[in-house]
């Protein structure tokens, strides 16, 4: 057992000695290496300054830019195929945000604004049960693009706990068709 401790002690002392010797050698050589690296970087920079390779594809850049411009114009033209696809995708993604509820208040009222779109086919249900506001519905997004008609629908259900400082039994609904927002308005008590 004593030999084991002797070996461990010798190993630790050897490691300490080797580490300190390595550190002192490295410390001295680090400054020399830094000087060499600075000289090499300067030589590489001098070599690079002498090399000037022109772009072999300038005409391809012009053609690529012209193609991008033409594609952007097609996407903006709602009568074109690509413009119709872009408009349909935009309507679909707008439907994905349907039913989003935001809360705001002023001195007299607490408001809940729901994104519902402006379709006449939307069905929205608003109920208050046990101190919770339950909003559910089906929202329809329709796009008529020339001869192509697209329709997307999404269902949602949102529940919010109502604060106790409002008249939970009486609320008013206000619809802003232009912005596609339904507002639920509770009077504060």
Characterization of the model:
There is one protein chain. The chain is α+β, with helices and mostly antiparallel strands and 189 residues long. Helix content is 44%, strand content 35%. The chain has 3 helices and 7 strands. It is flat, with a radius of gyration of 36 Å. 7% of the residues are buried. The mean pLDDT is 77.
Low-confidence stretches: none
Structural classification: alpha+beta
How would a crystallographer describe the biggest sheet?
A: 4 strands, antiparallel
Q: Would you count the extended β strands for me?
A: 7
List the helices and strands in order.
HHHEEEEEEE
Spatial strand order of the main sheet: 1-2-7-6
Strand content: 25-35%
Helix content: 40-55%
Per DSSP, the total helix count is 3
Rg over C-alpha atoms, rounded to the nearest angstrom? 36 Å
Q: Give the integer mean of the pLDDT values.
A: 77
Globally, the shape reads: flat
Report how far the terminal alpha carbons are from each other: 84 Å
Which properties best describe this structure?
alpha+beta; 7 strands; 3 helices; flat; four-stranded antiparallel beta sheet; three-stranded antiparallel beta sheet; 189 residues
């Amino acid at each position: 057992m004593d030999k084991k401790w002797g070996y461990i002690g010798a190993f630790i002392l050897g490691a300490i000695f080797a580490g300190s010797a390595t550190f002192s050698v490295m410390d001295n050589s680090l400054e020399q290496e830094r000087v060499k690296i600075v000289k090499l970087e300067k030589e590489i920079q001098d070599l690079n300054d002498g090399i000037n390779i022109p772009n072999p594809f300038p005409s391809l850049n012009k053609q690529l830019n012209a193609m991008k411009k033409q594609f952007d114009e097609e996407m903006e033209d709602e009568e074109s195929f690509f413009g119709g696809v872009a408009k349909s995708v935009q309507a679909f993604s707008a439907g994905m945000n349907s039913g989003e509820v935001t809360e705001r208040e002023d001195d007299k009222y607490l408001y809940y604004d729901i994104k519902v779109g402006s379709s006449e086919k939307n069905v929205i249900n608003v109920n208050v049960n046990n101190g919770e506001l339950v909003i559910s519905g089906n929202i329809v997004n329709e796009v008529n693009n020339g001869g192509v008609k697209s329709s997307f629908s999404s269902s949602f259900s949102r529940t919010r706990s109502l604060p106790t400082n409002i008249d939970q039994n009486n609320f008013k609904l206000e619809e802003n068709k232009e912005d596609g927002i339904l507002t639920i308005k509770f009077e504060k008590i």
